[in-house]
Amino acid sequence: MIHAVLFDLDDTLMDHASAMHAAVEDWLPGGHQQRFAECEKKWFAAYERGEVSHQGQRIGRCREFLGRPDMSEQEALAEYDRYLAAYERHWRAFDDALPALHHVLAQGFQVGILTNGAREMQLGKLRVGTLDLPEVELFPTVEMGHPKPHPQSYLEACRRLGVEPNSTLMVGDSLANDVEGARAAGLKALHLDRSGGGDISSLAELEALDFTAL
User: Fold this and answer.
1) Is the pTM of this model over 0.90?
2) For residue 85, how far is the Cα from the chain centroid?
3) Which of 27, 38, 51, 100 is most buried by a 10 A CB count?
4) Residue 169: phi, psi to the nearest 5?
5) Dist. CA 156–CA 146, nearest whole Å
6) What is the pLDDT of residues 25-57, one digit of tens each?
7) In this structure, is the dihedral angle defined by the CA atoms of residues 127, 128, 133 and 139, taken in order, positive or negative?
């Protein structure tokens, strides 16, 4: 039986990719979105593997993207703040996000959001997207010391919700972080792929889901 549902945040509930692309164009016009996305993926993966700190991946990302490996940490973080200011202006929730949260709450499930982002930023996104529901707990893995896909991140979220891993469903867009990692920790998982090819292509599909069959 499912007793709890954990959602990923970026590109699951909030449209991170669109916000990132628009922000990069605001910050450094000229069509650099793909290169920025590649830098983001590379450095955030290094953070997830424990090779750099959360702040360190921001520094590394800016140094590489701007082609200035000799930038001081302060300079790199100042540039990253300029990007963040543009990024925040483009935050928006997917249309199916709030109805999905309401639906799982109505089923009587414990509900949480398990994210590798930092609390302050992720709380800001939830507020902008009107997803900051009092019944939904935010679990930023930065505070846990173990980012997804480390098993401890999922287990700690389950512990805080007061549920067993095998009665918890993780829903997210990342195969590695939201599906494979969750299943390896003993959770159930659904892969959200909005372009098709996943377990679900929209969070609206949760309304027709038989949770007892998972």
Assistant:
1) yes
2) 19
3) 100
4) -110, 130
5) 9
6) 999 999 999 999 999 999 999 998 989 999 999
7) negative
